[in-house]
Amino acid sequence: MNTLKAYKSSPTLENSTWYKGILVSQLAGGSDTGGAFDLVESRMKQGTEPPPHIHDREDELFYILSGELKVFAQGKVLTVKAGESVFLPKKVPHAYLIQSEECHVLALMTPGGFMNAINNMNAPARAMQIPSDMETYATADLTDTMAVFMKYGLRMLSPDEIAEHLPGYPTTR
After folding, report:
1. How far apart are the first and last CA of the chain?
2. Which of 95, 141, 156, 172 could cross-link to 52 by cystine, CB 3.0-4.6 Å?
3. Which residue range or ranges hold the Cupin type-2 domain (predicted)?
4. Residue 101: which CATH number?
5. Could you tell me if residue 27 is inside a domain?
């Protein structure tokens, strides 16, 4: 049996990566928590949001450190600002759009393990800032990305599913 150890963590180049135009600092992963959760700090800018999607395994909690998100889930459109959080249960289609120029978010995903998918597709951060020279979800061919995500229980929504489950989500961005 693997015994978990107490530790402290902060965002550093050693635990930070660039993924689809987002600076992601992994503060805790499944191997650190016995699979209980992943904890990441992310810095994102408008245009780096993932397409509408659904997780089969993870519940997500986002706490906004700075900036603002518009979150679409369960027929609701929620504006989430600095100092506020939003919970997105597994098996619930959802999406978000960054409303401020940048957004700084703490994300808790439970159970742990989803970050393994991201870690299969990211690049080491060269600086503790949002990358400016990287393709995003909006500019990338997502064929390989979707294949990796499917292995981890995440699926992008079809246009019909977006219309059905995420009223208010813009069909053109």
Report:
1. 49
2. 95
3. 43-106
4. 2.60.120.10
5. yes
From the CB of residue 150, how many other CB atoms can be counted at a distance below 10 Å?
A: 13
* pTM of this structure: 0.93
| C-alpha span between 100 and 66 (Å, rounded) | 9
Tens digit of each residue's pLDDT (9 = 90 or more) over 70-92: 999 999 999 999 999 999 999 99
Query: For tokens 């970050």, what's the residue?
Result: 115
DSSP β-bridge partners for residue 112 = none
User: Rounded distance, CA 39 to CA 21, Å?
Assistant: 19
- Is 146 inside any structural domain? yes
At which residue do the structure tokens 């998100």 appear? 69
- Note down the domain range covering 60: 14-123+138-165
Using DSSP bridges, classify how beta strands 53-55 and 59-66 pair: parallel, antiparallel or unpaired. unpaired
Domain count, the chain: 1
Question: Is the residue at 1 inside a domain?
Answer: no
129 occurs within a structural domain: no
- Residue 21 exposed, middle or buried by CB count within 10 Å (0-12, 13-18, 19+): buried
**Helix, strand, or coil here: 76?**
strand
